[in-house]
Write a structure and sequence with these properties.
Elements: E1 5-9, H1 14-30, E2 35-38, H2 43-53, E3 62-65, E4 70-73, H3 78-86
Parallel strand pairs: 1-2
Antiparallel strand pairs: 1-3, 3-4
Length: about 90
């Protein structure tokens, strides 16, 4: 598993559901795995989200790359998601 790529999401989040196919495509094409944390129903995951988000995004989906320290908020293009994953 790719330990440095993280996604924070909410079970009932519409934008999170819209992003699922893009995340799955990215994982398949790059041969990576993004660690996913549900934050709306899990207090520990919500605390982890706050640690990485630091008020930058404030909502889900939130993607964080631990290698680069860069995050993405909300609905983004596949190209932007791929650049984030590759550390660009």
């Amino acid at each position: 598993m790719t330990e440095h790529l993280i996604e924070f999401y909410g079970t009932e989040c519409g934008i999170c559901k819209e992003m699922e196919p893009l995340v799955e495509r990215l994982e398949e094409e790059l041969g990576i795995k993004i660690k996913k944390y549900e934050v709306w129903h899990n207090h520990e995951n919500a605390k982890l989200f706050m640690k990485y988000d630091q008020g930058k995004c404030g909502s889900v989906p939130f993607y964080y790359n631990k290698k680069t320290g860069k995050g993405l908020c909300g609905r983004v293009s596949y190209e932007k998601l791929k650049e984030w994953a590759l550390g660009k």
